[in-house]
Structure formats: C-alpha cells, structure tokens
Amino acid sequence: MRRRNFLATALAAAPAASLLSGCGDDGDDGTLDYLSLAWQKESMEANKALVAEWNKRNPQRPVRYVQGSWDSVHDQLLTSFEGGEAPDVIHDEANDLTDFAHGGYLADLGELLPDGLRNQIPERTWDMVRFGGGTYGVPFLQEPRVLVANRRLLDDSGVRVPDTEDPWTWDEFEAAARKLSGKGSYGVAWSMKEPVNQSVNLSLTTGGAVFYREDGKDVVRFDRRDSYVAELIHRQVNRERTAPRGSLGMSGSDTLPGFFSGQYAMVPLNFSYRQQVEQQAPDGFEWTALPMPAGDLGPGSGPTQGMSPQTLSIAQDTKRKEDAMAFIAFLTQPDHMARLAAGDWIVPTGRKALRDPALNTRKHDWRTGIGMSEDLRASPVLGVRGYAEWKDKIATPAFQEYYSGSIGLDDLRGKLVEDGNRILARYQR
C-alpha cells in the first residue's frame, strides 16, 4: 500500500476510526490523497464538505481527505517524501516549502496552473510561493497580525482608535501603550515564545527586511530599519514598563486570561485568534481588532507586513498532477476560498473571495483583516535556504535574550548577522 505509512503517521493523534476511514486497502486505486491541516471545527467541516462535493461531481477521480497536524507536518512530510509515500495534494505553509522544493519533492505548478486561478490571485501573493525559478504552491489563505484590544480600556483612555485607513504610527502606538498602563496593568503584552517570524515580518513596516539578496546570495543584516520594532519592544519591556516581561515566554493563547482580566489592554495576535477571543471572553467583555502600527521612517516604510500564506502543493512523484491541480482549482474557486477562510477566521488571497459579503462585515472586525490584505507582502524569510537552522539555533534564543534585557542591541546584532551569515553561507556554497 503506497501511502499507508504517511496516513498512519499523519493521523497518529486522531481517533482510531479516523485512521481506518482515511486508509483504504490499495493506495494506488486511483484516489488522490489530500492532506489537510485544518484544525478548527468550522474549517474541518468546510474542507470535508468540499471534498464530498468534489467526489460527487468527479466519481472517476475521487479524493480522500487525510487529517494532518501543524505541529508535526514538516517531519511527517519529509519522511513520506523520502519513502515515496507522500500525499498527492498537500496543505502547508509557504515557510515550509523552500527545502522541499529544493529537494525535488514538490511539483513546479507553473505549467499546471489554470489561467482563472492564476489571475484571481495578485502577483504580490504569487511572489510568496516563487523561488528557485519555480512556483511550488497555490497561496490561498493568509493571516495578518493585528492588535486585539480591550474596547472599554481603549475608550476610557481617550486615545485615537486607529483603522486600516489611518493606522497608528509606531510612535503613536508607544504613546497609547503608556496611556493604557498603570495600577498593575500594562498597555500591551508581547507573546514572544516564538519571536522570530513576527520580529522579521514586522520589520517591513519600517522599511527593513533582515534578509537581503547581495551578489545573488541571501545575507542577514540588522540595521536601524531592521531593528526598529525590536528596539521598541525591548524599550517597552525594560525601560517604559508598558509591557510585562512575564509575557515574553508565552504563546498567544497564554496571554488571553490576562487580557480578559484587564491586566493587558492590547495583545498582538494573528487574525484567527479572534475566534478564540470571541468564544472565551467573559460575558460583557468588549474587544476589537486593530491594524498593526505603520512605520513612518520615510520611503519603504508603512503598514506593510511580511506574510507566509497557507498553500496547496502537489507532490512531485504523483502520477496524477493534472487531476491534483483540478482539485486545487476546485478548492480555490472564489466562493470555496471564502468559505475556507471563514472557517479558519482568516483572510483569503483571491480578489473575488476578498469581496465575499460574508467576510466584508464589521462583525468580529472582519473588515480589519480584509482591509489589511493590500499591504501583505512575501515574508523576507521565504525562499531563504538555511533559515530554519538560523531561526532555531541563533535567532530564537538571541531575540528572547534581547527582549528580556539579558543582552543589548550590539550583542543581538552580532548573533543574528555574524553567526547567521555563517549558516546561510554553508547552504549557498
């Protein structure tokens, strides 16, 4: 059975019934395996319903839904690729595609993409999945970072409430955090258990990038525009005390109890956290989602954020690439893409899907995410070989030490740049 090992591994955390239903007697029976990483109830239901609809319309080329997990997908996919047992259609994230593409495990979708799908997604979004001369995924969902704020505390403070048309500058955000702090409470809680992606992606707001191309190679720099937001976070935690040191080791979910109790007035979170906030907030608690601040350091700065979208890819070794692409095109039809985005509480990439009435509403501040979509650009880390090692071995501990005040800016810069460039050079020989 061609894919038994992958299915068993991917579903190891799922109930036994799910494992049995996801694995037939013959992995080469003409059925396409679709690995989905949907995890929220509404998203899983939407994915399974679309698979069922596809199968009803296409009985000659059926699809089998396979439930995976974001927590372990990279290692599971690597094992399955090396063993020739990968699923045909793969739901993943652009961050994860670089090494798989360089390893020859993913199909280049350039010649397979139908014009309708290609034209629905903006070029700036296609840039998020292009590297090494190929296109290795269809970017279909994206998730900006927002400020989730306590509405009552915001109104009582008298600060200007920003929107996507007129976001705060970083200076205004810093001033708002000061106004919202006091009497044992903090203006903002930065969750930095995983500090690297947000530190890099927010550097785009000030015209930075951290990763650059020089003489055809990737290099790390950490100059003023790259470090501006990191310096602000360090200042809020260690000098102004408008952000608690205790939140630095937290995940986004860990900050919510303190947010609900009024200990933190604002928490920077990914857009999908709105669902968790809505479901867990105590009765009468009012919250709102605000755009992240925009840089004002001159040309190149603004509300831009780096983004690593969710993607749909095709395994290189599948013999049914055209069928796999037809299924991806079906999943990403505008109404289907909007349905999947709604189920995940995040933002679609397609132009028509972004105009879907269900997403263009003030309820739960959907309009904030939709309004931010124009300013989402490819994360500087995408396509950088060696990024994962730099992130795990160098950047994560270095940023954590810096934000907590254990090291200064010069030490942080030395670790990120000097140690980082040695790692990147090894991957680019």
UniProtKB/TrEMBL annotation:
Q: Which Gene3D superfamilies match?
A: Periplasmic binding protein-like II
Tree of life domain: Bacteria
Spell out the protein name for this chain.
ABC transporter substrate-binding protein
Naturally occurring in which organism (per UniProt): Streptomyces oceani
